[in-house]
Hints:
Elements: E1 2-7, H1 9-26, E2 31-36, E3 50-51, H2 78-81
Parallel strand pairs: 1-2, 1-3
Amino acid sequence: KTLTVTAGPAFTSKWLAPRLFEFAQVHPEIELRFSASLRLIDFDRDEVDVAIRFGLGNDEGVFSEPLIREWMTPMMTPELAA
């Protein structure tokens, strides 16, 4: 019983890994494997069970569930904004 999860490097280290540590304590029978990558995943080719990626979540042939609603704001000096 192995669960292989891939996500971006920053997301894996800052958000995912701490949460999966708790999951591993509750489910010691499941071996967890991480792949910190931004590469597109082909579930038929790659040995990955779950891929966490930024996107709209409407890709065909896969189940997707939003995890986090994210927004971005440009930051700059007032001079550059003018």
